[in-house]
Amino acid sequence: MKVAGYRRLLPVLGVAAATLVAAGCGPGAVLTSETPDQAVTAALQAAQTTPLRMSLTGDLDLNTGGLGNLPSSIQTALGQLGSGGSATGQLAQESSARRQLTASADGHSLTLVQYDGHGYVSQDGGAFAELSQALPASPVASPSQLSTAVADLSFQDAGSATVDGVSTERYSAPITASVLEKLAQDLGGSSEGGSLEEVLPLLAPYLTGSGSVDLWLSTGDGSLVHATLSGSVSVDVGAAASALAGLVSGGAASGSLPTGTLGITVSLAAGVSDYGGSVTVTKPDATSTLPAGAGWAGSLGSSLSGSL
């Protein structure tokens, strides 16, 4: 099994599952009587607990040709990612505590199951392994976190449209470096060392580009019909490395710092079906246990890198 395949898959579909599920669907008042914030916040809140199925597609493109003088660890990581790739996935959500995501890329698949505080992983349809470290007891975002994120993103009503035969209202929010910085400041306070609210303000001057999040909600009941996340950004790695090195006592020799620009383009899309219907996630019969790591993502990442 190719390491590069999963390294392309996890950034694309992992983000898709984490963000587009949150940007899900929800009942509420007729959309025309709600503000964008009200409509989107209701959608986010309901999506965390309502049974649903979601189809996911993702594309990640990396332009690393202009980079130079990189540490070997970063060269290895970028080598595994290559120029990016495409992935598809299917998510089944029974409740906030029971979800299953099967994602595919490069002819291989990875199935992740969250079941009542436990995590399970299966590669290419093989036996499941259970993560030895329990998942968080409350994996859903709080109402205040959702409201803060929606307010920071500044969704606007972009007009009506018919999507897959459904009458919808589209809500759109631009994504810029300043928006990401504000989100990190408002939501990153619980992060561990090297938190986003500390790093992004330092990197913001060296980021260019933009993107958007778009949600299409049914005008009938507020449920999500379609969602997209897209963006393209360039990072002046050389200038950022030089500036950050200057903040460290003693600094680093200019000749040893990375140089060049990194380009990143991401496109994610999600379509919801069976919203509020009968969705069942089955607890896997695990035949092995994965070692403890830094939570769900850490355990999964270390197990994949060690076994592929």
What does this molecule look like?
The chain is an alpha+beta fold. The chain is 31% helix and 35% strand. It has eight helices and twelve strands. It has helices at 3-20, 36-47, 72-81, 143-153, 177-187, 196-203, 237-247, 295-307, and strands at residues 52-63, 84-95, 98-105, 108-115, 118-123, 129-131, 156-163, 166-175, 207-218, 224-236, 261-273, 288-290. A hairpin with a 5-residue loop joins strand 5 and strand 6. The longest helix is centred in the N-terminal third of the chain and has 18 residues, at 3-20. It is globular, with a radius of gyration of 20 Å. It starts with a helix and ends with a helix.
Can you tag this structure with a few keywords?
alpha+beta, globular, disordered N terminus, 8 helices
